[in-house]
Amino acid sequence: MSDFFESDFVQEEMETIGEMQEEIYSQVFNFETLPLDEKIDHLNMLDDLLEKQQILYTRMKLSDDPRAKELADNVRQSAIVMGFPKDVDCNLLFSNMRETLDRVRKGIDKRA
To answer: CA 56 to CA 48: how far, in whole Å?
Structure first.
């Protein structure tokens, strides 16, 4: 059995995800007042974050490490708590979030 969280790659990705989350959250309440180029940068970073989270989630689901599987299940349970169906497919959830970002981008382009 592998220890998923001992992997250098996993540790680096988790650190990167944490840093990206902090940067995104620090700007989220100022989003409407950001200049257009910063709004686009913010949305691009959010898109990159979602991709990294989805990849990490998929790796956790495929891992033999019980802790990784537990964390993947916690992600799914969090989605359920937020109102998603009990049989939610988190990969579909990530895809839907990216589609929402695309709609926001299109809305910004129309206003610019």
So the answer is: 12
